[in-house]
Amino acid sequence: MSTATEKVLRRRLIQRPAESGLRQTLYDVIFEADSPLGRGFDIGLLVAIIASIVLVSLETVPEYGLQRDPNSEVPVSSLAIWFWVLEWFLTILFTIEYVLRLYCVRHPLKYAFSFWGIVDLLSILPNYLAIFVQYSAKSFVILRSVRLLRVFRVLKLWRMMSQADELADAVWKSREKIIVFLAVVLVAVTISGTLMYQIETVLMGQYHDSDFTSIPQSMYWAIVTMTTVGYGDVVPHTTIGKIISAALILLGYSLIIVPTGFVSAELTSKIAGAAEHHPCPQCGLPNHRSGAVHCDRCGHRLDEAILPEPAPEATPT
Amino acid sequence: MSTATEKVLRRRLIQRPAESGLRQTLYDVIFEADSPLGRGFDIGLLVAIIASIVLVSLETVPEYGLQRDPNSEVPVSSLAIWFWVLEWFLTILFTIEYVLRLYCVRHPLKYAFSFWGIVDLLSILPNYLAIFVQYSAKSFVILRSVRLLRVFRVLKLWRMMSQADELADAVWKSREKIIVFLAVVLVAVTISGTLMYQIETVLMGQYHDSDFTSIPQSMYWAIVTMTTVGYGDVVPHTTIGKIISAALILLGYSLIIVPTGFVSAELTSKIAGAAEHHPCPQCGLPNHRSGAVHCDRCGHRLDEAILPEPAPEATPT
Amino acid sequence: MSTATEKVLRRRLIQRPAESGLRQTLYDVIFEADSPLGRGFDIGLLVAIIASIVLVSLETVPEYGLQRDPNSEVPVSSLAIWFWVLEWFLTILFTIEYVLRLYCVRHPLKYAFSFWGIVDLLSILPNYLAIFVQYSAKSFVILRSVRLLRVFRVLKLWRMMSQADELADAVWKSREKIIVFLAVVLVAVTISGTLMYQIETVLMGQYHDSDFTSIPQSMYWAIVTMTTVGYGDVVPHTTIGKIISAALILLGYSLIIVPTGFVSAELTSKIAGAAEHHPCPQCGLPNHRSGAVHCDRCGHRLDEAILPEPAPEATPT
Amino acid sequence: MSTATEKVLRRRLIQRPAESGLRQTLYDVIFEADSPLGRGFDIGLLVAIIASIVLVSLETVPEYGLQRDPNSEVPVSSLAIWFWVLEWFLTILFTIEYVLRLYCVRHPLKYAFSFWGIVDLLSILPNYLAIFVQYSAKSFVILRSVRLLRVFRVLKLWRMMSQADELADAVWKSREKIIVFLAVVLVAVTISGTLMYQIETVLMGQYHDSDFTSIPQSMYWAIVTMTTVGYGDVVPHTTIGKIISAALILLGYSLIIVPTGFVSAELTSKIAGAAEHHPCPQCGLPNHRSGAVHCDRCGHRLDEAILPEPAPEATPT
Q: Which domains are delineated in chain B?
């Protein structure tokens, strides 16, 4: 993972302008998060992205009447005008940012065709396209959702927090177990889904209504049930189906708690191993409890405190 | 956190009457919980507050017919009369308590305009206002809910239980992880909510009914699903929506178990650190790591072993 | 807890017949589980109790037509006759058992009026009463449910399994934390329930239908939601209600995972503490990994194995 | 468990042809997974089995119109023809595999009547039978579901992943606790199910509709609720039923988190025991407890510290 980070860093440095000046300063502010200005830019960008996502989300609420009519660009209600103004404000902001990014990198074309370059373009394009082309409001939403991906751009903010790494690390270390677990879950889901389909639909379907209309539907039920989500849109209606699904629930519950235990255990050992405070100055034993005064192996004082010695035989005369 | 407690203590002492006498005794009983009388007062207050909350709650049950008619203060049914009597009894009790609090503090005005002073006043005011002003029964309920906040006043009872601190501490230590986790959850919720909206409404909306009427609705679905609550008021209706939501459920489930693991791990290391092995024979410090040779407070050897030195190469001649 | 067990034991010994003979042998078989015969009796009793519970349960299923008609004692369908026969067989078995218990204890009256004596009587009485008295089938079910309590009688079987104690111990040790946790949950439930009632019914009730008909109903919703059960019979219908309930779900979820962590941590430290294998014969260090050959403090061999020394410098000449 | 594996290995070796040649090579490829070819065969088989399961599953979706008409073997829609072709392709593949298995084992009859032999036969038989016999499409599905069992045949692939063993081991070690836990759950389910039936149906059934139509139905509700699945198809309708079910939910939740803790704790102690500190400089044993001074296999000092002996009173003169 650290080599992956290095690769990203090296790829970035290729884009950093060699000569110091406005372009290099701009590059550091826009692409890096080490300086206060760079961090401020990132936070501002995060706020703008979140605002734009909130706008896109709220426009889809039918009762607000913000769904753009495909035949007229300017919306009618006063609330809709505010939304329209705000959105164009953000679009222009993102456009300026995009142009600045193109300006300050060493190889603009390379950036424009990189993953983030395309995402940046796609997040502003739909609004401009809407002026020229008359397309349905629905497909409009799909295009603008690309904007969501930009949230990840600011994820570098998280790198400042050491905790994110630790979390990612714990998940990463458990990856093999997670794969095994997913395989077990899928087999369990297939078997219990098929079983419930047989019982509810094939055997009892002529006597009762059945929600288990097909095996994929039953597998959907099995996943919804085993994860204890339990929507209730697919439920057994026969007595035998209820008994078997109750047994499957208990089994599935036992199965699904295992990965919880794994992640928890992984984190426990990590936290225990990270308790490296107070290395002993004499013998170098690394782990001591917080509050320890003496090394618990060699008895040497951990800190050269000016306090008197605690007990008589510890101060030999 | 301990400095915060100290600050609270100091602020309190400012209010404690200097001269001993009735006022100081009253102050100690009402504001402190150290003496048996003070603890008794707190428990009595807790019971009264809970009773008053139960009354306010039950009055809202429509089938009991206790909703006060805005045009007549005195209710009609015999059950309602009992409620009315009990509530006035509690209101008068809280009024006496409020007057006594004003009486025994050093600076009554300072108390009256403090947070708890305002809460205390607001919890009795609605009942008195109801005599003079004729307002709707609905808004009446809102005002009286302020009473709920008074429960926190008696939370000082919990300070007696050392466990509450430990619990709060474990949550507090995990705060950064919780923030990171919430950020991850919100990004996951936004992306999966938008994805389901696209699939269920934009792509398949013309063929099926869709519960995913807007992106905020879809994000509500994502939160309800990821936390495994699963009401079932918003569910996918298309086959492709079911497949994708099943995948999202498994992903979301994997994601949401991580904080469980963190809190669990934090608590494990806390409890493990408090394990009682190897009490020091000299200073009596109870907790040492397994494997510790010297007491980590006074440096004394933990066991008076008569054994020779561990290994030959460790005793240089 | 061990003193409680002792008390139970002493109380039992009071009932044990002093003189050896048939009565004492019977007592040991019926009341104790130490001998093979006593254990066999307990297992047989467990099977009979479970069978009788299954019978009582299945009789309430309307489609089997086993609900006894209050006007005729003997049921009609052939399935019902089987049930009727089986139930009288079990009733007579329990009657014999009850009489034997009365016969073999030292003070029959003391037993007859003890808790288990009354439960034993109540579990057979309804069937006999049904012959003489004509009462409704419904109240019949209530009386016969007392039989359920008898399951606990055989719980002494569990004492054979050392694991049950450990489990009970882990729960017992966490009891203070559980009380604090329940208090926090109840406060959270009251506050979030009232909040949702205000928003959904008081504020928005005139525009939408509301499931939050009263504060107790809202508190029921809060408990069902926070424990992630999520029936879906009470759900928010307004946009603002959905946003707030989504926030409350995330908060509640964070709150409710804490006790999971506590129990998990308690058990972890318990299991870690129970890993006391391989005490060192030289320095007495108690905990070594399974598979350890040398004490990891003094280097002494843990077992006097006849294997040659692993490495040359460990065998000084 | 390792002896069980050995037993399986020995049973297999009985079937391995003694003389090297085509049969032995085929045997190693088909039955073993040690060689690259054998592993490739297993992965290919896994893909074929998954494909065949997906086919069987999708055929049950009513909207695809793939349910075979019992009166005509060849389906009509072009999609159905593709399914028909693919399925026969897989059936012929499995037939070849079955014949090869019969050919290369030492005792073909012994294999044919072994568990896996019968499963292999049953997974291809339904398709051939369908040509001669005209039976209902429904029962057809049941027979073909046997195919699912074949997934387990390829589970030997998992043996390559060491993680699966560890997971199985953790579950296995907790088996006694799981049995105790299941017993507790079943008693809790029976008692709370009966209680809710009494309250909702027997006591309040004449005033409200009740979902708790019988005790088994109530026990189904109890399991669905305690595991926090919460479908919502059975919910309390009376106020008293809601209060009691809320209390039962909290109790049940507390109960059901215990096994999570157990598995988690078991895994924690396992992982903690495997932590990689202090590799031995002499024999290279990687895992030592923090605080270990000597390697616990060869007794060598773990660190070549040049420090004086820990504390004065520990060096007797």
A: 15-159 (1.20.120.350), 164-274 (1.10.287.70)
